[in-house]
């Protein structure tokens, strides 16, 4: 009789199931940071049974079963089941800070006509890289941070079918960034920054002889952009609320200001030259609307 | 009420702004007219941008000024400096045959580029310019190349008052000959008015040389009747140049001599007043002067008014008494083509030479009428004469292959200066007793102290494109072949690398500041 009671208890026990699906309905990592009433811990803190492994084939018994009076029957028919293994779990980590590594491309639309001396159109394609970080302000959805980036663009043009002009701009940029998590995976952000702009330009002319002049200039640069970033939210990641890394892309637009360059390339000369003077070709202001597309990897 | 701009709209507008760029301001070409040398600097005309660029050396720097000339409907056909080098002239014509109702205009800019230009309406796209030696007038005409106009009046001219704003558009009253050249034969002294007195009335006479005729006009009063003189197309008389002898005690009436391109006769037009006193007319005669006449000059001995001509075929000077048309010949026994007079010991000396010849011949004219057997002196130029430039009254510079000869007449000295490459004596300037030389294609500026005849050379950093001397700042300016503008400024008093300096890119000055 006691054996019968034990068999009934095993038969009435609930089957092992994947409770992950039920957890998907839980709040996201960002939303979870919002203070909740003192309710019992959500289901996410409940132990999560691992899926059952495939049964392992077992050879059939070769000896007669023991007498029923001395051995209770198995809880169910079929081969014996190995002991269940528990799936590894991680505790949720609410997002307090984020660090991004990214690369971007974009275009600056220069409105200064002088730019056309160096490019046959007004748009300058640039590429660069960024490292940035931010942290949550209070318990809200706003993140404040900053970072540094580097971008480079270059162009070449022929003036009046007689002169070659090229320009290369390299600029490190430090910026402050304010981001609002509209929904985890979708941020709206703005950043303002500035830094030095290192410009190298040259002018060359050629007929029966070839002459060229070269100039390097360091000017000030300020940049303000706003945009959106899309990234994988934690709930889409294998570790879900505990995920430490994600990735995404962002699109932004704004305005980049650079102070004017007084263009006066110094002519290339041979050894021991006559004192050689160049001329002031005018001012160049490489500034205008900018748009940017970037991809990033985020650690949080 | 306008709806507020949304970020998406702003982004779209930014993209649109990048895509819809205005025209490239740096399209087109950059082909400037050759530089014009003024008293103070060099002046380039940029036809594509309708600008005149003044480049003025000042100390160690170069000042660049720009002035507008014409507009997008016009183009600058040519530019030139006035004879006093204080002004720059530029003629604008319609940019294309499709431009209508566009008048041709002559601009006169101050040489320093400051101030507004004077603009003259000249009514035709003239291709040639004659400047009066007295610096008062310019005459625009169609030269031998004619015009690209569908139909043009070959004898149309414009007389421009360079001291004021007046312009006279005139058609010559000739006999059908096409105008070839314009001369101011009465103006002998540079910068001075030398009116020709005819019958007690002063006239400023210009000679217009046509195929076989000469038209004379009083520029002080273009309304006066023009005097057209046919010189005989039947005998092949084609005017080449003129020479006006003012009247004096030896020959009272002014006489205009006309040299023919071929033949052995010189036309002599004796200018006399009209009977009614309204103007002047010409009495024509042809003077036989040997087989040919390649150059001429007048010379008054104490008692005889001579016309001296060079008979290139015979290698002789021909002296003709213009009163009687009688004369004599002085054989030179060497090639003769050109002559000039120089002052010597209170008298005159004729110097005769020929391109390709090997001698300079000098003949003292003092008492020539009484010394019929006088023989010329000869100065040998071993390697032949390519070019001859008169430096001053006592010296000439002869270019001959890779040699230059400095000829000093008082000492009868010929000094050869050898070089690795040929020198062009036209690329030279005489500053005091220092001769400066800069020949296109070379990389040297050379100086010759004419007192010691010691030459020195200074190496430039680039080959010479053209050699200019600016009397205002007293500087030699060497231009180099570079559309951006490239020149070397040399102090003529101390031509050395330590005192010279180079400027580059001045023709592009301010190029980035255009709107």
Describe the structure in your own words.
The complex is a heterodimer of chains A (300) and B (515). Chain A is mainly beta. Chain A folds into 2 domains: 1-89, no CATH class; 97-299, Porin, CATH 2.40.160. In chain A, 6% of the residues lie in helices and 49% in strands. Chain A has helices at residues 2-12, 20-23, 29-32, and strands at residues 97-110, 123-136, 142-159, 163-183, 186-206, 210-231, 245-258, 261-263, 266-267, 276-277, 282-284, 288-299. The radius of gyration of chain A is 33 Å and the shape is elongated. The two termini of chain A are 58 Å apart. The model of chain A is unreliable at 1-29 and 31-63 (pLDDT under 50). Chain B has 515 residues and is mainly β. Among the domains of chain B are: 292-380; 389-515, 7 Propeller (Methylamine Dehydrogenase, Chain H). Chain B has 1 helix and 42 strands. In chain B, the strands form 11 sheets. A 4-stranded antiparallel sheet of chain B has the order 1-2-3-4, with no helix packed on it. Classes of the chains: A mainly beta (300), B mainly beta (515). The interface between A and B is large, with 45 and 49 residues.
